[in-house]
Every structure is written in structure tokens, then in C-alpha cells.
Specification:
Helix content: 40-55%
Oligomer: single chain
Distance between the termini: 24 Å
Order of helices and strands: HEEEHHEHHEEHEE
Mean pLDDT: 91
Amino acid sequence: MKELLKKEIIAFTQESEKNWFKELNTHFYDVPIIKYASADDPLFTEYKTIISEKHLTPKEFFDNEFGAGSFSGGSVISLVFPVMEEIRVSNRAQKDEPSREWSISNMNTSAFLQAIGNHITEFLAQHNYRTVCPSYSKTAQMVESFISNWSERHIAYVAGQGTFSLNEGFISERGIAIR
């Protein structure tokens, strides 16, 4: 199933109009890096101490979506979307503010990420998997200033996508210009 899902994610990324920068005739995001973490990884529970006691585990998100006791293990899918080279290059020369291309890319991020989250959820449902996309679920919320109850960067860390920089950005195998 992982190979089938990988092909589906890559195809959606390449074909989605929400990932298309018309003016540059390129995508906003390159082929994603896809990795998995066990939903039972103890680091998810440690995040309640590291990030916030209100940060939810995969089990808590799943039970909130499908009812208490419905969780029985599984995987957490972590996607890293590298920003396309043309957009990164446009931003490198900037000293005072982001490039126009970077800003446009940033404005389109939420629509694309929600679209791919919904697409993956529907795709997996068609293959008889119950899923939840935490960032776009009814359970997602800000719990403190700048802290939500689900951190995509911290999930990426558990999945082995990379590490944190000194400024708390996330460094992946493709660098820090990612979503």
C-alpha cells in the first residue's frame, strides 16, 4: 500500500492546479518526501511535555474523530514539500522582504495542503483505511499563542524527515525551504 500511496501523492502534487504557479510556468512545490512514523511512537506522548500538555497524540486525534476506543495503532504519514528552485532563487537576493514569488507561493500553501490532505484521506478511505488529517480536522486548534495541538514539524521529526535548526525551523534532506 505504501508504494501505491506514494504514487498517488506524487501524481496529485504534479497534477493539482493548486500547486501550479501560472506566471512562472512551474509548480510551487517539488515532489514530496514521504515518510512514516508509528502512531504508537513514545515521542508523541513526550510532546505533551516538550511542546504543550494540550498537544494531542495520534491516538487522541483518532479517538476524537471516530469515538473513544476506536484507535488500534497505525501509521502517521509525514509529507515534506520542497519549494521549487525558481521560487527559492527569487527569494535569495532579498534582504528586506520576501520575493514576490515567495509571497505568492506562501499565499497558496494552505489551499494546496488542505487539498492534498483531503485527497489522501479520500484515497485511503477508498482502500478501507480510516484516517484523519489532524491539521484540517474538527479537533485542530490553537491551544496557546503560536502553539497548536498538532505540530507538523514535530511529526516530521518523529518520521525521520530531519531536525530542528537553532531558530526552530525544520531542516529536511532538501533544506529548510519546505512546507
